[in-house]
Specification:
Layout lengths: L2 H9 L5 H10 L4 H11 L1 H4 L17 E3 L29 E14 L14 E15 L8 E6 L12 H11 L2 E5 L3 H10 L1 H4 L16 H13 L14 E7 L1 H12 L1 H4 L4 E5 L16 E5 L1 H5 L14 E5 L8 H4 L11 H9 L17 H18 L11 E4 L6 E3 L14 H4 L3 E4 L5 H7 L1 E4 L2 H7 L3 H18 L4 H13 L5
Parallel strand pairs: 4-5, 4-6, 6-7, 7-8, 8-9
Antiparallel strand pairs: 1-2, 2-3, 3-5, 10-11, 12-13
Helix pairs in contact: 1-2, 2-3, 5-14, 18-19
Length: about 500
């Protein structure tokens, strides 16, 4: 079909906006030009573009939503008829509920290249799928702040992990966000089928094994966003009206979302902003020609070990990057050290409950940095939500200082002080009023490097640094005040840090 019949078909409503752009691209028209033409021809088909680039309801199919899926047993029961990795945190205390839904439909197949910085077009369509989403939301719509944070499940360890939820759940719950986890990738979905054939046996994102990669994941995630943003039939958010959507992912899922931002979002347009937490090379660069805000939140590991030192991008009207000192790609709040207590923090307690395994590699130094990266993440949620609502951009932040940067992703060496604490970056009290070395380097091997290190100071060092308890509390207070002023901490977290310092034994 040539351009003129396509235009006529679109104007007459015979084809939707998504099909129009795809077919125009197929005859040699750029996606950007096709999108602009679509908006000029039929503004109603595109919807009102907000600050975040949301384009309306028509361009992505709306899946069928089934649920909420009932659970016949409590989490931990060997029957496994409950949501995998059902949260250990007390949602009821905050007036929240956890519910699981299945979404199904037909998805387009995309071939998105590694490092791709251009808009993708579907290879083909019509591929049936069925997957799950997990929703944690306020029961009372008056508690809802209007924003849904939609996390692409991380599958690095072979099953779905809500890596970011473990870091920012406190702010989600106290600030009234809704949280949704999306099982988009075949590794995670296939594990669910094995873990509970009764509950998850009908899930499939491979068309019965015919698709051997994640070619459907891009459209599956888009359709999950569509179901959240413009529900038809069963509303997975209950009686909540979603006004804003933040797409969110950590590590490998941040890499997927970086690809999604670059290649899929320009035509899907259903997210108002993206938080990309530690996407590894080579999928860590974002396009500079889009209007949708993107926020890169990075640990020391991300800068020194997985490629960000070699691929820094300058802040802009739509991009912010924060690098946080004394942090590791996987830390205490994400992983946790107590896997035997069901309500302990981190993934380990629920992973052990549901799989009988836990994450505790044997490394040269004690693992899991204790610098509260989660508090910076809380501030990022606040800033990104405000960015969407008002257009007020988040503050800038200084980068970590590099002593040298080689060509490979693991060839950066950070400048460090006498304690091995990195210089530069966002500096919380854990590094500027230190009682331990919190840092990223560890070994042997890659997993030890991303688990970082936590080495408490000996008594002699503490006595030298803090001759009295008051000296320690005063130093912590100064650092906390600076970070609060600069926008890297929220007031409630600042109070927590001050209380912890006052109640400590340092300098006594």
């Amino acid at each position: 079909m040539s351009e003129r019949p396509l235009v006529d078909a679109f104007v007459d409503g015979q084809i939707d906006r998504r099909t129009f752009i795809r077919r125009m691209a197929a005859v040699g028209v750029s996606v950007a030009a096709a999108g602009s033409l679509a908006e000029a021809l039929r503004p109603d088909a595109a919807g009102a573009r907000g600050r975040g680039g949301h384009r309306g309801a028509s361009s992505v199919p709306n899946p069928t939503v089934v649920g909420p899926i009932p659970s016949s047993v409590a989490p931990g029961d060997p029957a496994h008829d409950y949501p995998f990795l059902s949260t250990q945190f007390d949602l009821q205390r905050y007036g929240y509920v956890e519910e699981e839904f299945f979404i199904e439909g037909t998805a387009d197949r995309y071939a998105v290249a590694t490092g791709q910085l251009t808009t993708a077009t579907p290879v083909d369509g019509g591929h049936p799928y069925r997957t799950r989403i997990v929703v944690r939301r306020p029961k009372d719509r008056r508690r809802f702040n209007g924003t849904a944070v939609v996390e692409w499940y991380n599958v690095t360890v072979g099953f779905d992990v809500e890596a970011n939820w473990f870091r920012y759940h406190e702010e989600i719950l106290r600030a009234g966000f809704a949280w949704v986890g999306v099982s988009a990738q075949r590794v995670g979905v296939n594990y669910l089928r094995t873990w509970s054939p009764t509950r998850y046996g009908t899930l499939d994102v491979t068309e019965g094994g015919a698709i051997v990669n994640d070619a459907l994941a891009w459209d599956v995630y888009s359709q999950a966003l569509q179901a959240i943003r413009h529900p038809r039939g069963v509303d997975p958010l209950g009686n909540l009206k979603v006004r804003r959507v933040i797409a969110d992912g950590e590590s490998s899922s941040a890499a997927k979302l970086t690809q999604y931002y670059n290649a899929i979002h320009p035509t899907a347009g259903l997210a108002d902003a993206f938080i990309l937490n530690g996407a590894p090379e080579p999928n860590l660069l974002v396009r500079t020609d889009l209007e949708t805000p993107a926020f890169k939140l990075l640990t020391e590991t991300d800068v020194a070990v997985i490629g960000h030192a070699q691929n820094r991008q300058a802040d802009s009207d739509v991009l912010r990057t924060w690098e946080v000192t004394g942090t590791s790609h996987a830390d205490f709040d994400m992983i946790g050290v107590d896997w035997l207590t069901p309500t302990a923090p981190g993934v380990n307690p629920v992973q052990f409950r549901d799989t009988g395994t836990f994450q505790a590699p044997s490394c040269d130094f004690p693992t899991l940095a204790r610098t509260p990266f989660k508090y910076v993440y809380h501030a990022v949620l606040h800033h990104v939500d405000r960015w969407i609502r008002t257009g007020k951009r988040p503050p800038h932040a200084p980068p970590l200082e590099a002593a040298s940067v080689g060509p490979g992703p693991r060839d950066a060496i950070l400048a460090r002080d006498e304690f091995g604490i990195a210089r530069g970056g966002i500096r919380l009290s854990a590094v500027d009023a230190p009682i331990a070395t919190n840092a990223s380097p560890n070994g042997p091997g890659f997993f030890c490097s991303i688990f970082g290190q936590y080495v408490p100071f000996d008594e002699a060092t503490l006595d030298r640094l803090y001759p009295s308890h008051g000296a320690y509390v005063t130093k912590v207070a100064r650092v906390v005040h600076r970070n609060l002023r600069d926008g890297y901490l929220l007031p409630r977290d600042a109070v927590t840090l001050l209380r912890e310092a006052a109640r400590s034994d340092i300098g006594r």
